[in-house]
Amino acid sequence: MRRLGYEAILERRNEILLGATGLDYAAFDSGPFSFDYEAMLSAAGYTYEQVVNIQNSCGVGHTPLLDLPNLTQLVRRGSPKGRGANILVKDEAANPSGSFKDRRASVSAHHARRNGYKGMIAATSGNYGAAVASQAARLGLRAIIIQEAFDSVGRGQPEILEKGRKCEVLGAEVLQTTVGPELFYVQLLTLEETGFFNASLYTPFSILGIETLGYEIALDAHARYGRYPDVVLVTHAGGGHVTGVARGLRRAGAKATQIVGVSVDLAGLHMASDHDFNRKSFTTGHTGFSIPFTTWPDRVDVTRNAARPLRYLDRFVTVTQGEVFLATEALSRIEGLERGPAGNTSLAAAMVLARQFPEEALIAVCETEYTGAGKSPVSQLEFAETMGVEVVNGVSADNVPGKRIAIPTSLEAMSVAEVDLDKLRSSYLRHAHDVVQREFQSHEVDFLAEDLGVSLREVQRLIEASASMH
Amino acid sequence: MLLRKATFRPMQPYEADHTIHPMGTRVRLRFTLLQAHERAPSIPRETAATPYTVRVNGILQHPSCIGAEAMVLTASGRQVSGVVEEIGPADRHTFGRPPSALVRAIEALHALARTLT
Lengths: 470, 117
Prior knowledge:
Strand order of the largest sheet of chain B: 1-2-3-4
Number of strands of chain A: 13
Distance between the termini of chain A: 47 Å
Strand content of chain A: 5-15%
Strand content of chain B: 25-35%
Strand order of the largest sheet of chain A: 1-2-10-7-8-9-13
Distance between the termini of chain B: 62 Å
Order of helices and strands of chain B: EHEEEH
Oligomer: heterodimer
Largest sheet of chain B: 4 strands, antiparallel, barrel
Number of helices of chain B: 2
Radius of gyration of chain B: 22 Å
Largest sheet of chain A: 7 strands, mixed
Number of strands of chain B: 4
Structural class of chain B: alpha+beta
Largest interface: A-B, 69 and 47 residues
């Protein structure tokens, strides 16, 4: 009889994952951390055109790129003369399960069915679970979603509960766990038991599915304005969104478009803390994911993560929970679009960054998401107050994650905080060094330059600076 | 089959309702997957002090009642055992009551927006 304890299952990790994705990641390895990234993506076996066909067959994609004229006017009112870029948003809520995650799930579901898997399993806080459930239902596959949902006394944050409800409505079994990294253990245990496909957020299938989003943004903007967006704002968590959108923009020819990652600042909250778990109002798109996943992508539920954000990020900023809630309310009241808050993380940043660009510039926000009870800012803030989090009016600096949410009363009271990409690169290098415990070899330096999105000369400088700190 | 012994001890007493519900009733189960001492290393102390539990909804495979060990058939077709936590589990999250700070913020922004149109 196979042992099912925590350590026994973790020991069988590679064997379980190989069977659950069909991808032999070792075939692309060139060292302990380096690998052939493009070869790995190609090995998934889908061209861009095939991905488009898959998504066309299930109603995914081709969402409208909407102008936000009223918010743009509001931004211009508070900007120096001639400043205030046009803000556009890709209305990804129009996808079948209500978010851009359908793009990721569609390719995984197609691949799972084509390869004879009976079902799919995903560990996710939510929208992706709904997407997997939706695509599985359409293709006649079973779905199991594993969701970190409750603290140890059984309290669940309303956004998570809503996303769990949605997964069930779309036909999935939802395993709702208490707080902890053992989510991965549940995933491995369930994959081994069922033989289902591992619909991880981080496989090549998932990333290839997002490329269509970047591609559509580029072409839609060009068709309407005769130019590609100057900036695309991408809500950044695990890195797949940034990676896929950036690749799609490049594929469409928008090579000069600046890619800006945006996360909600949750500094100081521990993601595995039973105490902190319900004191955050965002379950994704926050720094609790984006910082660790950017500084070491291969900490995920597949052997090699296909989401490599530092390859593509030109800039990375954070916003506060209060700012995103205001952006969400503004989108409803001022533009007539009631959408979920997590998708509006980038919109909050757009309301700030648009002031820095001339009026003719285009700033595209990557996504909206569906909303409903549990997701609405009202529901989230009411829950936060019951958890002892103070909800006040104020500026960014007044926010203290887990203790106080400050909602600005004007656009001028909103701001973004820059994340130093070089610091993240240096952290990545320290992780890589911990893996090899020696000087990097020449081919590893080449890989590092690619994976950190810098030149060879620049990566050498970062390596030397990092070594001098040891 | 993911069969687990129902080792969960409720934090608070279950409702004092021992009504037996028939096979085919939709219920919510809870089971302990890892005891506190079996948990992953390097997790915060307050998390490590608690067992790792899982909740799942499914259809009762035999008559049962709240607080009893039972087996359900889940939406993916698996049989799972645990303690019955709720009969006919409901979604209770709501739109909530708007906090005054949010009302003040959006009213101010909306008033300004109206002056521009």
